[in-house]
Amino acid sequence: MALAGQGKTKATVGYLDIQTTGNQSLAAIVPVEIEGKFLYWWLSSQYLTLRNLSSQDGRDGLNLEMIGNIVCPVPPRKTQRRIARFLDEKTARIDALIEKNRELLNRLAEKRQTLITHAVTKGLRPDVPMKPSGIDWLGDIPAHWEMLPLRRVSRRVATGRTPASANADYFADGVLNWFTPGDFSTSIELHESTRKLTPRTIRDGVCTLYPAGTVFLVGIGATLGKVAVSTTAGSANQQINTILPNKNNDPYFMAYFLHGFRAVVRTISNSNTLGILNQDGTKSLVVLVPPISEQKEVASELRDYDSRGAGVIEKIERSIELLQEYRAALITAAVTGQIEELV
C-alpha cells in the first residue's frame, strides 16, 4: 500500500496491484501479519484522523514514526478477508452509482453549454438574416448584431486587489463582499463571498467597491475564464478582472457570452504554464452586441433555464453527497466490527 504523507492528498491510501516505486511524499506499507485489503479499508476509514495528525515539531506532514504508531484492529484472518470482500463488493456498487450521477451532471452541463453558446451567438429567433462574423469560433451571427472589443461596451475594466493580510483592520469583522476564484460556482451569479472586508479598505483606497451588476471574470489559474454577475456591491482580489457594462449592455448577457466561450478566453490568455488574462487582454476580448432589448430577452431566457435546472442539479449533487456519506459509514462499520454478519 501507499499512504500519502503531505499536501492535498495527505492521508489518502492506495492499494497497489503491481510492483512500483514512490517518491519521498509516500509511505510504502507492506502487510505481514494482516490482510492487505483489510488494512487498506481500515486506513481508508481513518482518513480524517490521519489528516489531522502533525508531528511534534509542528510540521503538517506524516512521518514514518507517526505511521508506524497507528493502532489497527486485527481480527482473525478469515474475518479480515470476509470484511475486505464485503467492502470490495459494496463500495464498487456505490461507486458505480456515484459515477452515473456524475455522468448525468456532465450531460446536463454540456446541454447547458450548448444552449448558452447558441443563444448568445444566434439569438432566440431562427428566421433572422445572418452574416459571417469573420471569426471561426463565432461563425455566422445575426445581421443586426455588432461585434466590438469589450472596452467599447464597458464603463470600466479593472483588476481587483488584496489588502495586506497582516492588517487586521482590513479583515476583522468585515461586512463587505471580497470575491476570490473560490467563490465562483456553476451559477451565473455571485451572492456572498467567503471572506469579508471592512469599510476601511475602501476608505484607505486599498480596494475598490464595485456596484451590483458588475461582471467578475477570473483571470488566472485553473478556474481562468469563470464568470459571474454580482448581485450586491463587492470587491475582488487580484486574480479577478471586473467589468462594469455601459447602459447599452446587459451584464447577464455579457456574462453568459463570456461563459459560452470560456475555452476561447482560456486559449487567448498569456501562453504560459499558469495562464493569465490581464486587464488589457480582457479589454481586447471580442463580444457580440445585440440591441439591449434583445440582450435582456436572451439573458432572461437563459436565467429561467438555469432556475429550472437548479433544483435538478441540487438533487443529483445531494444524492452524490449521501452516497459518499453512506460509503464512509459502511467502511467504518465494517472494519470496527459493527456489522454482525461479518464478525
Structure description:
Helix content is 40%, strand content 15%. The model has no long low-confidence stretch (mean pLDDT 92). It is built from nine helices and 15 strands. The radius of gyration is 26 Å and the shape is elongated.
What's the short story on this structure?
By secondary structure, the chain is an alpha+beta fold.
Features:
343 residues; Adenine-n6-DNA-methyltransferase TaqI, Chain A, domain 2; five-stranded mixed sheet; 9 helices; elongated
Topology:
Layout: E1 2-4, E2 13-14, E3 26-28, H1 36-45, H2 47-51, H3 64-68, H4 77-122, E4 130-132, E5 140-142, E6 146-149, E7 154-159, E8 176-179, E9 189-190, E10 196-197, H5 199-203, E11 215-218, E12 227-230, E13 234-236, E14 240-245, H6 251-260, H7 262-268, H8 279-284, E15 286-289, H9 292-335
Parallel strand pairs: 8-13, 9-12
Antiparallel strand pairs: 1-2, 1-3, 4-5, 6-15, 7-14, 8-10, 11-12, 11-14
Helix pairs in contact: 1-9, 4-6, 4-9, 6-9
